[in-house]
């Protein structure tokens, strides 16, 4: 497209850039108000101009306000010129962008505040967990230190110095379980002869393992207890020594009683 004319013209104290470009079939006009950004643009088909006529048209627009208004009116009616206030649209776009950015910043700020609050809550929980762990450790130490005295007090109101506490567990990998009743009852015998109890002690038991030990019955029931030992019968459907060995079943026990004096 060939530029036929490009010059600044003064119309009613407003400065415009007036441009005419054309090809063999169309002529493009543009008027850009440099004061307020108003922009007029349009195309006329099959009406080629000469440079002389283009310059005359620019002078007429600059000198004659009525001709300028008529020129715009005829262009709008005959050729469909569009009037676009670019400056106004640009301001609206900037305002919209600023508004959107403000909304985004506000959302990000709220999310940041929420995350900070969560971090604070986590730190508070971690502190409480540390305090609880410390308390648990203290209690475990107290229980460990006073366990023998505790059981002695339970066993005898006289607090005999000959009352002792013994405890142990059978092997997790090789407890000697025997069949008491096929597919439902297993028996384990615990030997207490090395404890040298004078009489039958008080006995506490529990069953440990990695599978299914929580679904049993009888693991805390002691049978045939004497000063030298006892039995426990564990009940559950479909059990065998081979299966419970895979499940690492084992018996934990505590025995409290009076022992022979040295």
TrEMBL record:
Lineage: superkingdom: Eukaryota
Residue ranges the record marks as coiled coil: 105-149
Keywords: Coiled coil
UniProt protein name: Chup1-like protein
Organism lineage string: Eukaryota, Metamonada, Anaeramoebidae, Anaeramoeba
């Amino acid at each position: 497209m060939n530029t036929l004319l490009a010059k600044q013209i003064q119309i009613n104290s407003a400065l415009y850039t007036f441009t005419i470009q054309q090809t063999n079939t169309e002529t493009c006009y543009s008027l850009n108000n440099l004061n307020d950004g108003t922009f007029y643009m349009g195309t006329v088909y099959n009406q080629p101009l000469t440079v002389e006529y283009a310059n005359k048209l620019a002078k007429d627009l600059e000198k004659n306000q009525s001709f300028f208004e008529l020129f715009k009116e005829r262009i709008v009616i005959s050729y469909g010129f569009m009037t676009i206030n670019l400056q106004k649209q640009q301001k609206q776009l900037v305002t919209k962008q600023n508004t959107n950015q403000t909304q985004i910043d506000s959302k990000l700020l709220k999310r940041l505040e929420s995350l900070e609050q969560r971090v604070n809550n986590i730190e508070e929980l971690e502190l409480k967990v540390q305090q609880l762990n410390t308390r648990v450790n203290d209690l475990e130490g107290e229980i460990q230190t006073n366990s023998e005295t505790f059981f002695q007090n339970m066993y005898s109101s006289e607090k005999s110095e000959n009352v002792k506490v013994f405890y142990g567990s059978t092997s997790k990998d090789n407890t000697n379980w025997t069949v008491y009743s096929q597919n439902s009852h297993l028996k384990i015998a615990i030997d207490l002869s090395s404890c040298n109890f004078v009489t039958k002690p008080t006995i506490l038991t529990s069953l440990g393992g990695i599978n299914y030990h929580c679904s049993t019955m009888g693991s805390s029931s002691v049978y045939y207890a004497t000063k030298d030992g006892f039995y426990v019968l564990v009940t559950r459907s479909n059990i065998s020594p081979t299966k419970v060995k895979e499940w690492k079943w084992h018996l934990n026990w505590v025995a409290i009683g009076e022992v022979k004096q040295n």
